[in-house]
Amino acid sequence: MRRFISKVKAFKKRFKRVPDVEPNMVIFNEVQTMTTEDNPSEEEEQQTTELRDLQDTVQSPVDPDLAEGFNTLAMSLRDQYQRSGNLQDLEAALENGEAAVAHTAEGHPDLPERLQNLAAFFSDRYERSDNLQDLEAALENTQAAVVHTPEGHPDLPMYLQNLAASFNLPGRLQNLAVSLMDQYRRSGNLQDLEATLENDQAAVAHTPEGHPYFPQLLQNLVASFSERYQRSGNLQDLEAALENAQAAVAHTPEGHPDLPGQLQRLAAFFSERYQRLGDLQDLDAALENGKAAVAHTPEGHPALPGWLQNLAASFSERYRRSGNLQDLEAALENAQAAVARTPEGHPDLPRQLQRLAMFFSERYQRLGNLQDLDAAVENAQAAVAHTPKGHPDLPGQLQSLAASFRNRYQRSGNLQDLEAALENAQAAVAHTPEGHLDFPEQLQNLAVSFSDRYRRLGNLQDLEAALGNAQAAVVHTPERHPDFPARLQTLALSFSDQYRRSGNLQDLEVALENAQAAVVHTPEGHPDLPMYLQNLAVSFSDRYQRSGNLQDLEAALENAQAAVAHTPEGHPDLPKQLQRLAASFSERYQRSGNQQDLERALKNGKAAVAHTREGHPDLPGRLHILAVSFRDRYQRSGNLQDLEAALENAQAAVVHTPEGHPDLPMYLQNLAVSFRDQYRRSGNLQDLERALKNGKAAVALTPQDHPDLPGQLQNLAVSFGDQYQRSGNLQDLEAALENAQAAVALTPEGHPDLLGRLHILASSFRDRYQRSGNLQDLEAALENAQAAVEHTPERHPDLPGRLQNLGASFRDRYQRSGDLQDLEAALENVQAAVAHTPEGHPDLPEWLQSLAASFGDQYQRSGNLQDLDNAFYNYGASFKNTSLNPVRSWEAALLWASLAKSHKSRRILEAYSAAFHLLPDILWIGTSIYVRQDTNRRINIAQATSDAISACIDLGNLSLAIEFLEQGLGTSFQQLLQLKTNVDILPQDYAAQLQALSVALYSGTTENPQKVAAQRNALLITIRQLPGLKNFLLPRQYTDLRHASEQGPIIILNSHPDHCDAIILLNPTSNPLHIRLDVSVTNLKAQKSVLQDLLQNIRSRESQISRIKARREGLELGLEGLLAWIWTSIVKPIYTALEVNTIISGRLWWGPTGYFAALPLHAADAKDQFTHSYTSTLVSLIEARSRKLSDQLAVGLVGVTHTGPGRYQELPGVQQEIMNITSLVRDKYHLQSLIGEQATVDVVKAQLNNCAYIHLACHGTQDLVDPPKSCLHLYGGNLELETILQMPLPNAEFIFLAACQTAKGDPELVNESFHLGGGFIAAGFQGAIATMWSMCDEDGPIVAETVYSHLFESSGRPRASDAAKALQLAVRKLRDAGVPYERWVPFIHLGI
């Protein structure tokens, strides 16, 4: 046996230079390797035989040195275990170690060594199993080793070092120290740790510097200082650990097997100090030493996976500091290499998997790749699965798994992930004994999980659990511990949540106190400092929202700026810090109205989004903040592009948020607010419906008892209030009130948002009072409005709105009671609202209008002219800024006009100017024609225009009357014409942009017309800054409009209850002429009724869509009488005025408004003294005359002889009609003819785009309920007016609509009505022939032949302006033939 042992020792000597590999391990491995080699050398066969003999010998019970053999084999097996992680190797080592001790006699000099080895085996198994019996056995054997070692033994220094873990004595005290250290880690008993440190220091002190064990003794001293630092957080302990670790490296020669381990430990302590102090040099030193440790460790070495893992951790730390993606990739690469080199079953595998999960999670946070998130969860689950129950690492693995589930929950909103996170966090705490070093961290993470569930479900028990665990985490963490700031931060967030729930100011103060403490305990340069500064900024912001104290707002901004300043470019947290900074600037803007703050908010909000990758879980939140900033700027500037950007970002935030995500209701609410803003600007009911839809969804997705629910209900109440104001539906009003009451009821007393909810509730009660007249509702409105004002701090940004609301309620009560005190209170509160609102604030116009109304009331009461002047002054001041609710401002302008009229003030014209200036915004081109026509009816633009014209006439300002007419009755018409305006006068790039945007709008090819309209509006503003283009596409002034009369006089007819008038534009050089007509609105209504009754006789016997086939009895006398009245009352006085001005013949255009528009004015001229035309607007004439004509002329004929199976009746006269025209045209111009089944919708549309002259002989229907649905009936389908308006029609010049009802409009819309004839003019035709009611089928060929004979009689190019004369000739031919009135009267000419 001695022979084999000596050979073993010789074998050890051969391998002593192998780094960090014990010779025993090599021996054992050599046995395994040489056994399996295919072609071993003779020397290798001899070595293998000797090792097998060694194994065989130790199994023989007869050798006297059996104990030494057992011991040697046990050590080899232990080395194999440390290499493979195979538990069977450890069990075999333990079994042979016990046998070695059992076969060693008491007093034998090797007994202490074998007891020490046995203790090491038990210690290994304890680390694997966490079985306390193993730890006690390790301690028992170590103590026995110490007892059996005589005083003065030469190994004293090493034993002292070993005893450092457990009351060391020389020699065997080393393993006792290790065992006691394990016991300390298990029990947390500080006395064990202090004894360890004391004996470690003694061991080093008793060992000369050159001793071979000296570096190891230093390293163990390092470990003890590190443990005490982890316990106390005392920086001196960390410095001592680092100092001794550096000394250990310095005393370890290059190539020594222990050098990689020393370098690795040194790297760890540099990393620890970096985490404490934030000094980047420490982090770089950690990486440098970690890389060196890996470089000095050969492939296959059992320690290499651990070194790789630690190197990965250092790269991760630097990534968190710098944000450099390469560092994160390096961390992940090294962590994956560590896992790949760790065999299945190895005790370190769970820890490696845990770290790998963490790095995947970090990359997910940076790149937003869902695969990384799933990989994080997968590896964290594997780490837990590979960790046995009771193992000391299990709590950490559970915590890591909880974090991965929490990350996935934040991405997906899946409640199961949240529950899994909470379950694992609770298990982590449950498996960690109180007093354990990791216990506070587990409590902190559990608090975070409870907070997440509270924010999702709003359950108060979760909030209390979060707060309790966060407080316990702080209590269990020493003040100087490096993680103390993080625990304070978590506690601050929990108190913030409680404050937002309860409104208790003490909770806010405690949150702020802890957030400040977190910052104070964090050194400059620490990687977590920006996050703590950001959280502190939020707390200051919360207190500002509560108190209105400007110092808190400035502190919030200062800390947000500091957070950004401490975050390097490219760092993954930079977008988050920029987002917070944007919110702080936005808050200061709300307070100060400083435009620079608003621009900074936008700049930082945009940067936050730009730095956030698509798919990143935080992207929706950043889009949300950006949307709010754009909305703020829109409310300041009224710029529609800002409104569109707000809406676009709010929609994107919702789209990027998965169903079930806790923030989805907040994003839906924000989207609802943006849609509501757009509704208030455009009047588009669809926007209001979308606002309600999203508001309802936000409420539905918010759990009962959730702290955000009252805010969602408040928002929904406002939307229902808007819908009530639009619809007048009492159910909407009740819904608004119900939601506002619920919002208040769910908000605790003292909550900062309670006052805003009382304000909304007051508005809802006020609305119901105005509907019902119930005095109790008015008193409730006053009570809630007063409560809102009384508790709002001075200089709070919401104070002006609450003062205004209170003033409005007092005014309501004054109008009910006549009590002068109420009027004075109304004035006092509204004046205060104005005084508290900075110049340029978007709400200032509304406050000024309300103040003006109250001064008007006071003037009515006092008769004091100063009150009247104040009313006029405030009305005027209110229109200096862009209105965000143009309809409301329109109503205020009309109230101003009414006040001015009642006191015969010339400022009435100023009031109407303000009103009509709003029309392009009210009838916004970004909305559909349906919306614009509905708005036209709803706010009664026709009546306002009539009132304005009448006021101008009374004051002798006829030129302004013409401008008002053009703006009031032609806005939508002009907008359509402007979409096809000539852009040749513009620079090429601007022309191209404007044309592209205009085409997108009129063609209906854009999915977002509001956005395109906003872009077009912004482009027009830019164009108007160019030289000579100041007024490009702005409403025309009279100096331009008068040129419409170049070809003949234009007669504008205005009907008004006070008087009916005609304004005549004689020519461009003469002043307009006014004629007071001897008719009244009552007369006009009566004549309109007469005409309707006469036409009803036709409709009662024949379908509305037919062309008349025969003479109708009973109409002659009625129509003759109507025309006689029109001649006497309207036409004759005008002709007389024209004759006075030497105009006795030629062209004449009618521009009727109101009830005049229903009358056949042209037919009253029995002698055909003038050639009559109609025009919807003056601009349309000017634009048509200046339009560039196409080079080639094509004529298109459409004859719908029948409309297809199952549709309307046939038109037998159409065939002849088309033949007549063909015979006139085919030899002169290119002709495209569509007859019968050829005349489908698509083919006719193509012909309309290709041809300059179009003849449409077909059925037609005017839809008075939905005018854009008015249509021409073609073969197999209808060509609707809406479609016509969307067509480019580049060659359009003249169209003959030989169909019924093509010039029958909606009398309520007057000139804004889009009958089919007017629609073709708006679409781009210069002129059109249409009919006011059904035409006779047999008249079609006659009229068509006469018209086209005149148009095409010359060899030159026909002129659209000749069509009016051509129609006059055709109608005269019918009259000469004796046809009845109803057959020739309906034909009219439109355009030039």
Automatic annotation (TrEMBL):
Residue segments, region Disordered: 32-61
Family annotation (InterPro entries): CHAT_dom, TPR-like_helical_dom_sf
Coiled-coil regions listed in the entry: 1081-1111
Pfam family, one: CHAT
Domain CHAT: 1122-1391
Keywords of the record: Coiled coil
Highest taxon of source: Eukaryota
Stored PANTHER family: FUNGAL LIPASE-LIKE DOMAIN-CONTAINING PROTEIN, KINESIN LIGHT CHAIN
Protein name: CHAT domain-containing protein
Organism the protein comes from: Mycena maculata
